[in-house]
């Protein structure tokens, strides 16, 4: 009788109801930080590498805002979510994804919490639902004492599950002034991410000035820029004396000319605490400033003496020669720059024009001066036809990425030149020497794959075994 009563009690409720409050709050806290990249999206676990992948885009994690029905489950959960302990744990990282907020507001009725609405019901709700900036700010005001990381995402639109772009022009009234007020609410935050909110950061230059008034800010990322960003607009960021990571990226899916920074402001020389600088997709950026690539020992009072990570992918007009003077770099990312080991000869240019083939526009400088410290080098999605002859001299390398160089022809053995690198952990040779006709392999393709196979066998004899990514 007792066992029957116990079984009926458990079946009518949930095992979670039996957990202590403290443990249940810890579960809620885990939901708040779990990422949005699932195993099926990243089966090779490339998002864990110290540099971005040219074929993998990471979206801001929605955190607990991605679970809008938790407080509706039962009175106990609603009570726990309102306790100071839970508030401090689950609202340290807050993401206001305006596209996601719109979708969850459509699904708010409890009857839709465990089943999807019909297409007609969804379309009808979508036409009537809007997001109030006042409600967003009211929510931020309630959790502001706990927030250490704030992300604002998708103010202009988002990609739906079917891949179609959904504009949000008339679905919310959240503008630059509201963003400024939000920054004032979380003035002591450590991390600020503005993802695909071009209308919020380019319509009013004052937003950049407000961002510079966050005294504790360690990480700033503004991604998805779709317009020119004048030097004067971002100059106030030089006041962020504690900033350690700065990311400004242009929209990588735009093909037009003129996106992103026109120049790096001189005021950024005061960012002496910066260790990570990502400037992706700035098509008009002409050069790195002299104080960034100064020879010899840098002045600890100016420049970026602690810079360890530099990403200038997609900066098609940037002069690359000064890179050889950045001898303190640990990570260098040079993706989508139309690079080769040398510039093509006039005869090769003429032959490529007749064959409608794209050749390199620039040559990669010799990076051997970086050998004492460089640990990760990403050269993916370029136009390499051969590997640089000096790669094996970068003896500190842990990660080498040459994926998506579709004309790369490996003419000689990679062993022991690459296989003997003492710290090697990953070699990425995916999609190299891709031919239009996949029904057979030409001689160059066969030679390339033969050398990669020999490299794979050599790496298997090492312990621990480095990872080799290649197409089979």
TrEMBL record:
Organism: Pleodorina starrii
Repeat in keyword set: yes
GO CC entries: axoneme
Name of the encoding gene: PLEST010887
Subcellular localization, as worded in the UniProt entry: Cytoplasm, Cytoskeleton, Cilium axoneme
Gene3D superfamilies per record: 1.20.1280.50, Ribonuclease Inhibitor
The keyword Aminoacyl-tRNA synthetase belongs to this UniProt entry's keyword annotation: no
Pfam family, one: LRR_4
Keywords, comma-separated and alphabetical: Leucine-rich repeat, Repeat
SUPFAM superfamilies for the chain: RNI-like
Protein name: Uncharacterized protein
Superkingdom of this protein's organism: Eukaryota
């Amino acid at each position: 009788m007792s066992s029957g009563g116990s079984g009926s009690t458990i079946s009518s409720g949930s095992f979670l109801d039996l957990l202590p409050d403290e443990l249940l709050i810890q579960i809620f806290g885990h939901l708040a930080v779990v990422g949005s990249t699932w195993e099926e999206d990243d089966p090779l676990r490339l998002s864990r590498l110290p540099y971005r992948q040219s074929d993998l885009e990471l979206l801001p994690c929605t955190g607990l805002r991605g679970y809008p029905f938790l407080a509706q489950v039962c009175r106990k959960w609603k009570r726990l979510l309102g306790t100071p302990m839970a508030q401090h744990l689950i609202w340290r990282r807050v993401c206001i994804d305006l596209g996601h907020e719109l979708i969850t507001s459509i699904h708010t009725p409890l009857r839709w919490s465990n089943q999807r609405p019909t297409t007609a019901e969804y379309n009808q709700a979508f036409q009537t639902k809007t997001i109030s900036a006042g409600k967003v700010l009211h929510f931020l005001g309630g959790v502001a004492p706990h927030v250490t990381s704030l992300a604002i995402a998708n103010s202009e639109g988002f990609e739906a599950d079917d891949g179609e772009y959904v504009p949000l022009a008339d679905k919310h009234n959240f503008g630059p002034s509201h963003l400024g007020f939000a920054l004032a609410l979380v003035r002591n935050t450590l991390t600020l991410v503005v993802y695909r909110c071009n209308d919020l950061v380019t319509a009013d230059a004052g937003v950049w000035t407000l961002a510079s008034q966050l005294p504790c800010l360690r990480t700033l990322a503004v991604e998805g820029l779709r317009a020119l960003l004048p030097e004067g607009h971002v100059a106030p960021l030089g006041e962020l004396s504690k900033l350690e990571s700065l990311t400004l990226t242009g929209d990588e899916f735009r093909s037009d000319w003129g996106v992103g920074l026109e120049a790096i402001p001189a005021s950024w020389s005061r960012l002496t605490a910066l260790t990570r600088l990502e400037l992706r997709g700035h098509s008009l950026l002409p050069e790195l400033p002299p104080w960034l690539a100064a020879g010899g020992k840098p002045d600890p009072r100016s420049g970026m003496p602690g810079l360890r990570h530099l990403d200038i992918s997609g900066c098609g007009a940037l002069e690359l020669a000064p890179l050889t003077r950045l001898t303190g770099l640990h990570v260098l990312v040079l993706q989508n720059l139309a690079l080769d080991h040398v510039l093509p000869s006039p005869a090769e240019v003429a032959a490529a024009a007749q064959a409608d083939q794209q050749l390199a526009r620039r040559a990669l400088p010799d990076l051997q001066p970086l050998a004492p410290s460089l640990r990760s080098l990403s050269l993916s999605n370029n136009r390499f036809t051969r590997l640089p002859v000096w790669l094996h001299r970068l003896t500190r390398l842990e990660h080498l990425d040459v994926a998506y160089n579709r004309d790369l022809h490996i003419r000689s053995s990679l062993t022991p030149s690459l296989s003997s690198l003492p710290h090697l952990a990953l070699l990425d040779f995916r999609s190299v020497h891709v031919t239009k006709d996949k029904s057979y392999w030409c001689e160059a393709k066969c030679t390339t794959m033969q050398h990669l196979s020999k490299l794979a066998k050599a790496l298997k004899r090492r312990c621990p075994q480095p990872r080799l990514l290649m197409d089979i």
